[in-house]
Every structure is written in C-alpha cells, then in structure tokens.
Write a structure and sequence with these properties.
Blueprint: H1 3-12, E1 30-35, H2 43-58, E2 63-68, H3 76-85, E3 90-92, H4 95-98, H5 106-109, H6 117-124, H7 127-140, E4 143-146, E5 151-157, E6 172-175, H8 179-187, E7 191-194, H9 200-206, E8 211-215, H10 216-221, E9 230-239, E10 243-245, H11 247-250, H12 255-289, E11 294-296, H13 301-317, H14 320-331
Length: 334
C-alpha cells in the first residue's frame, strides 16, 4: 500500500494528526541527535526508538532522529549543561542527575515520595507534571519532552542477602552524586560511595564498591548480575525516564514541527509507560531465573520510617517552592 493511501486511512481512523507536512527532501531534513548512557535495547532505548519512529512518521521525514546510545555523544553528568549550551539536541537524564541544574527535581528523588504506580502517573500526566515542565523550561531553558514510563531502582550487592535494614550496615554502595540519595543510603545504614555513572561498572567489577542501586532494567542491561549475586526489591526510589531537549533545537523548529515533536514525545511516553509497567516484574524474574540472583523483598516498614526522616530533613533545608511541590505531589495521591 502506498504512503498516500496509508496516510488517508490513518487520518480517517483518527490515528494521526490532522496537520501533515509534505515529505522533506534529503537536503532539507532537520537532524535531531538523541543520546543516552545505557545500551540500545535498554529502558531508555525502548522509548527512544518509539520516539524516533513517531517523529519521523508524523513529520513525513522533515526531521531525521538519530539515536546515540552508550554515552556516544556525552554522559548524563554533562548532558544537561550541554543542552543549555545547545551543543546536544536531546538526551535522557535520570532525575537525580538533573537536580544539580534544577534543584526542585530532587522532589522526585525523595525516597518513597510516591505511594504506588497510580500516584506516580497522576503526577506525571496531570497538572503537577505540566507545572514542572513549564518551570524547568523557564528556569533552565531546557525542555522536558516527556517523563517516560515509571521505573524503580533495585539494590544489588556482591556480599550477602538483605533481609532487614540492619543487613545494609557498612555495605559500600554506589550512589550518584545526589544529596538526597546519599542521605537516604546513610539513613538505611549503608556506606554510600558517590560515583559518576561512567565509573560504576569498573568499580563493581574490581570490588571498589559492594554494589549499588539502579533501575531494574539497567541491572540486566549492564549485566551487573555477573558481579553482584544479591538483588533487593524495596521500590525505595521511583521515577521516570525523562527525555529533555535544548532550546536551540526546539526553538529552531516551525510551529507545526514543534507541535508534532511534542505530540510524538507524549505518545512515545504513553507507550513506554505500558511497556515498563509490564516489564518490571518480568525483568526481576529474569534476573532470578536466568541471571542467577538471589532475590529478597524485606519488610518495608523500617525503610519507610528511615526515608521519612530524610524527607523531613531535606524539605526543612530547601526552599518554599520545594515544600510546595512536595505538598502538591502528596495531594495528587488523594
């Protein structure tokens, strides 16, 4: 079936936007380079591939999305600043690595800030999420295109199974250079070791650290199960797979193209949400059955109690805007 017929059917069915652009000549194409730090088939990669497909489909080739996994065009630690400077078009950055550039993002890093998946999605897809997008753009000049799907960080270590909070005592666990995450692991009794993401795989292999925590899919994709036998599921940190873009890129698009890129990002995020919610437990099962990890799910009461002390301490030392955002997130659960 030719492209015109396919497009007509899709428009009739309401599957595609009513405004379409004529196919672009190769020399008129706008290139959008999108980067992330993990492998192509990782959690970020799933969202990136869908975003690429939708952008190129909706713009009829006017925008050529080029994907760069594995920190090919930069690292998470440097990408936000690079987007502010306009030297990177778009990049996936976990919220803890956004916080040094926009401190309010630490709200999402607070342990147990979300009660469940429904609460998390009510925030990202509702008025609070829209307010955050607008604030990030106003304060930093960087655009948050989509939150992506929800994810959880699971702990892993090479020493012993974690059955209680006391079992974390003294374990050297890698933590991103983020104040909230450092404070959380200290409250849990571990010995947090702040390391850049690029240094983490080598540190785990050499025994410089005993373990750490990462998104469930990252533990599998980076093959951390080969060096750390024990997996601990607490859902202590929950978050998203945020895709950001520079003002240089977004601001340089026509109104039509900008609208289509934002539509593609929103739909790719919804697709990614469906995928990640289905995959999280599947990956955990794979890590146990195929990866050989010993999985524990400790009683969460003591961890939640420790996390609440961190929430209170962080909120007390932050701005009124920070506390207001915490209140908005908590209200979204009601």
């Amino acid at each position: 079936m030719n492209r015109s017929i396919t497009r007509a059917i899709a428009l009739t069915a309401g599957l595609l936007p009513a405004v379409w652009l004529a196919p672009a000549a190769a020399d008129d194409q706008i290139v959008m380079n999108v980067g992330w730090a993990t492998p192509l088939d990782s959690n970020y990669g799933i969202l990136a591939v869908e975003f690429e497909r939708l952008v190129e489909e909706y713009t009829e080739g006017a925008i050529d999305v080029r994907l760069h996994c594995c920190a090919q065009i930069g690292t998470e630690d440097d990408a936000f600043r690079a987007m502010q400077l306009g030297t990177i078009d778009a990049y996936f950055i976990s919220q803890n690595n956004v916080s040094p550039h926009w401190p309010l993002m630490d709200v999402f890093v607070l342990p147990y800030i979300f009660q469940n998946n429904e609460h998390l999605l009510a925030v990202s897809e509702g008025p609070v999420g829209e307010s955050i997008r607008a604030s990030i753009q106003a304060d930093t000049g960087v655009h948050l295109l989509t939150f992506g799907g929800p994810s959880y960080r699971d702990m892993f270590n090479s020493h012993h199974a974690i059955e209680t909070i006391e079992d974390l005592d003294g374990l050297k666990l890698r933590v991103p250079r983020n104040e909230v995450m450092l404070a959380t692991f200290e409250a849990f009794g571990a010995e947090p070791v702040p390391l850049a993401w690029s240094e983490t795989p080598t540190a785990l292999q050499t025994g410089t650290i005993d373990g750490g925590d990462n998104g469930t899919s990252v533990i599998r994709d980076m093959r951390f199960y080969e060096y750390a036998e024990h997996l601990t599921i607490l859902d202590h940190f929950s978050g998203f797979a945020p895709l950001f873009a520079s003002e240089r890129f977004i601001g340089g698009l026509s109104d039509e193209l900008r609208a289509l890129v934002l539509q593609a990002a929103g739909e790719a995020g919804q697709y990614h949400t469906t995928v990640t919610l289905e995959e999280t437990e599947e990956i955990r099962s794979w890590l146990e059955a195929e990866g050989g990890m010993v999985v524990t799910r400790p009683e969460r009461g003591p961890f939640i109690a420790a996390a609440q002390t961190v929430q209170q301490a962080i909120a007390a030392e932050r701005s009124e805007d920070f506390q207001a955002l915490v209140d908005e997130i908590q209200a979204a659960a009601e």
